[in-house]
Amino acid sequence: MPSFKVACLQVNAGPDIAPNLETACLMAREARTNGADMVLMPENVTMMEWGRSNTLAKALPEAEHPAVPAFAELARDTGLWLHAGTIAVKLADGRVANRTLMFDPSGAIVGRYDKIHMFDVDLGNGEAYRESSTFRPGDQAMVVKTPWGGLGLTICYDLRFPHLYRTLAKAGADFLTVPSAFTRPTGAAHWHVLLRARAIETGCWVFSPAQTGEHKGRETYGHALIVAPWGEVVADAGEEVGIVYADVDTAAVEKARGKVPSLTHDRPFSLV
């Protein structure tokens, strides 16, 4: 597998789709100008909104969402492999899917993934989240075939469920995506260590574009990361809006797994 250049975007999205979409497309074009072959966007890249009623009012069916043709044109025009973060897709049952779309350089959608694990937590000091009240969880994992290897799709809170990543790696993932809007409290405590752990456990590269800053009174952590298969953080965006890059050595996957082939060492056991 040849090597390639990856870029992860870090944005501060607001509640309205149009300006967020414009910003994301401009940043992706900048990344392409700087040599990126693949660009990844964060969770909620086109809309950071809070509350069931607000989210339902602004979510759109995939066929009507302005981000879909805009990102298809972006990929086609630039020749990028484009991971379009996530968009809020209104479903027939009245709920919403938090959905990743992956575009190839022709602008075709080659991957869809709906976030499986719902962020239902109480962080203290009045900060609570109930994604399951608005979103329908997905039930299908996916590995997208790219010219460089398999790309396993996950989203944000999925990060806390390591069996998903092990499954993706065993299904052919060489790279893992974790587009996120991590809260500041959980990010400061857990973000770096969890992403490094997922890389180490699977021997995969991990690409983690992120939201950062304040969004209508809530804060996201930032620190879009690119982590190598041995666990090294090779790029960290800090807390500012921007883009981080890495030259991805695809041979590092086989090298890491050759040193510690834990993906082949599963054994049955019983709980007593």
TrEMBL record:
Domain CN hydrolase: 4-250
GO MF, any single term: hydrolase activity, acting on carbon-nitrogen (but not peptide) bonds, in linear amides
A Pfam family it matches: CN_hydrolase
Keyword tags: Hydrolase
Keyword Hydrolase belongs to the record: yes
InterPro entries associated with the record: C-N_Hydrolase, C-N_Hydrolase_sf, Nit1/2_C-N_Hydrolase, UPF0012_CS
Domain of life: Bacteria
UniProt similarity note: Belongs to the carbon-nitrogen hydrolase superfamily. NIT1/NIT2 family.
Name of protein: Carbon-nitrogen hydrolase
Species in which this protein is naturally found: Caenispirillum salinarum AK4
